[in-house]
Design a protein that fits this description.
mainly alpha, 9 helices, 7% strand
């Protein structure tokens, strides 16, 4: 029983909403490819909330919450949940307050996604034969905080930070210096 309580620990640090992370950083923290990130943004599955792309050469900025949802989407896809079900789950997560997210555990039977906010709900799902796997959102929250701690972030309106590994930005900078 004490182990189940770990699924619902609600103590997480708040993250400033105006801090954004570029695509490569979001990919790194969420464990996805840039191609997945771009496709999900273009199809509206997970769009960046700090700054969306506004034409060629513009940089999307993803919030901490966006990256949290990206990582959850990745985990749901990895377990075989349909994209239609994932879209419904993502919309449900968007409708929740930030504080509420940490106390949610998403359970799935591979076909449907269920939200549980207590250990009793998890037990009920498992006993009913519906739960096959679960994603404790609070645990994913802490994983992402650890990943992003060492990665560069920026705020809209401030000069862009140097992003190691951002080859496109390096090429643009070199081209501008040579012009």
């Amino acid at each position: 029983m004490a182990r189940q309580g770990l699924l619902f620990e609600g103590v997480v640090d708040t993250v400033p909403e105006d801090v954004g992370y570029r695509g490569p950083t979001a990919c790194n923290a969420a464990g996805i490819t840039y191609r997945q990130l771009d496709y999900w943004a273009r199809t509206g599955l997970v769009e960046p909330t700090v700054r969306n792309a506004s034409g060629s050469g513009s940089q999307r900025l993803y919030s901490f919450r966006d990256i949290l949802v990206l990582k959850i989407v990745k985990r749901l896809l990895d377990t075989g949940v349909s994209l239609q079900q994932i879209r419904q789950a993502v919309q449900h997560l968007r409708d929740r307050g930030v504080e509420e997210l940490a106390g949610i555990t998403l359970m799935s039977d591979g076909a449907s996604v269920y939200e549980c906010t207590s250990a009793d709900e998890v037990v009920d799902l498992v006993q009913g034969g519906q739960g096959v796997f679960g994603i404790a959102v609070g645990r994913v929250w802490r994983e992402i905080q650890g990943s992003l701690h060492e990665l560069p972030a920026e705020r809209p309106g401030e000069p862009p930070a140097e992003h190691p590994g951002d080859q496109l930005a390096a090429r643009r900078k070199a081209r501008a210096a040579g012009a």
